[in-house]
Structure prediction request, 691 residues.
Amino acid sequence: MSGKTLYDKIWDAHLVKQRDDGTALIYIDRHLIHEVTSPQAFEGLRLAGRSPWRAGANLAVPDHNIPTTSDERSQGLAGIKDPVSKIQVETLDANCREFNIFELEMNDLRQGIVHVVGPEQGATLPGMTIVCGDSHTSTHGALGALAHGIGTSEVEHVLATQCLMQKKMQNMLVRVNGSLNPGVTAKDVVLAIIGEIGTAGGTGYTIEFAGEAIQSLSIEGRMTVCNMAIEAGARAGLIAVDEKTLEYIKDRPFAPHGELWDQAAAAWLDLVSDSDAEFDRIIELEAASIEPQVTWGTSPEMVAPVTGSIPDPASEADSIKRSNIEQALQYMGLTGGTPISDIKLDCVFIGSCTNSRIEDLREAAQVVAGKKVADNVELAMVVPGSGLVKQQAEKEGLHEIFKAAGLEWREPGCSMCLAMNADQLGEGKHCASTSNRNFEGRQGFGGRTHLVSPAMAAAAAIHGHFVDIREINS
Amino acid sequence: MKKFIVEKGLVLPLDRANVDTDFIIPKQFLKSIKRSGFGVNLFDEHRYLDKGEPDSDNSQRPINPDFVLNQPRYQGCSVLLGRDNFGCGSSREHAPWALDDYGFRVIIAPSYADIFFNNCFKNGLLPIVLERAAVDQLFQEVESTEGYELEIDLASQTISKPDGSTLEFTVDEFRKHCLLHGLDDIGITLEDATEIQAFEAQWRAASPWYFTTPETS
Ligand code: SF4
Prediction:
């Protein structure tokens, strides 16, 4: 019999009951909660007279709706101008109090984007099953946890039963061989993978990312990769546990301490796919061939290297693909054949659960240090992923570098990643964004998003159009 | 949950691949803490010509006459015909809530994003997967025939066309059972409460590190 994949191992360890029809009851170790997808679930619990199965398994934090200017934040809940957003945040606070759920409230120093906060607090541990009513829960797979997004009915289901009813996915391995060239980051790797397999390429699979290039990434870089597994269609992305994983987790508040840590760490090192494990699908990429990536369309798979051009729909033989390209270009206000470096930017957004951790901010700060944002860029903003990231960045003086270059330094939250708060991209404006989705209207009605790495976004801010970061660095 | 047994209705052809959940229901409508009322904002950015807000009076907004949902011949539709990777993007259950609230009961497409597919079943919506060729054929027939209706019978897993021919589809047995009887997942799972408790006790003993909290560690 062949060995087990990492996914198989975690799945098997959490199997409560297998039903004959292939569905299984899976135990959930950690449930993360934010304000947008939870109110209806708590309401459901109340209506049915149920209470959380294990309140201690939950961690809540508001992130999507909260304002990011210091002025608004300093006013607390009263600073949320949109009354509907405010109700949602208040509802989360009230629900957590009522059901005895641990919440990091809006102005807690530890507050931030739920997928930044989980790992940062050590609430994300290797080998766990983790769910959240948010598709980017795949992020947590970077620490060897089986983590995926769920809908609100499932949020209620997990609250009430600590379990989910699921069908097992298939196993996919994406191996990135060799080492990355300087200037090429985790974001470029994952965009290149999506460009290769498409936004539905991972549908029905759990993707394990492996290979030298993945192993050599920092834990934060691995989070960037797993974060976008969902953009490749996979609900969950996974990376094997190694010494770096343990080092990252040690001493974090939720992590085990003392003797329990030693036992856990020993157990976690086994969280790798067996050498004879079989995958249903294997994709290989050569790291050396990956260049800095920029999306030009309205789906993350519409991506090209910065040295490339926007595809010409006329040369696309498949009629459905051609019309997709045409629709995207029309929305983006771009013409096929244009070099990527000719795309002009009005806005730059550095933030989101994909790229708002300390290493991302360092990467961006390095590029803008001593320079000025280009005149045609109306708004450039940096939104740290959590209060702790912000604090660390300020300790290192990164905020001064950003401000001196003309970028705004904001309070932590989702911000213009999905523009549920006041941070919205204007109609027809082009934004270089370190977030994960370039769908129509994602960053604001009529807004045009280009997904890039933090360094590429920073360079675009300085030059006013896309530039190859490798040329700037050299 | 609403039962699903048989649905006969007009078919809306939404000829576009990768319809994402932002397309289905833009994020400004996610601020509601309710489950209902999303139907008027289904496909908001395409259906209306201006930008909608949760407190907009939708009856006063300029509608986009070119958008398929606004065409007179599709009014009252309950079956949505889509393309590949339908429902990709966020996990928001507001997407199926909006479709359901508008009046859709069935979606037919060659493929779906996993989370959306799952969310449909939890809300009494039936997402059906058909082969690409069959979907192409349906698009042609729907677009060329005004008043085109399909009848979907879940028990027999068949779709009947106006010409009397039928298509078969597959559906997971457990999900079919839940839809046919309108069963609530949580109630079903709680029937296994003893097994969950037993599992939890053994898991806590084997991996106590997953049960620490900042207060207790
Ligand atoms: S940062 Fe963006 S993608 Fe991440 S959780 Fe917030 S809204 Fe979702």
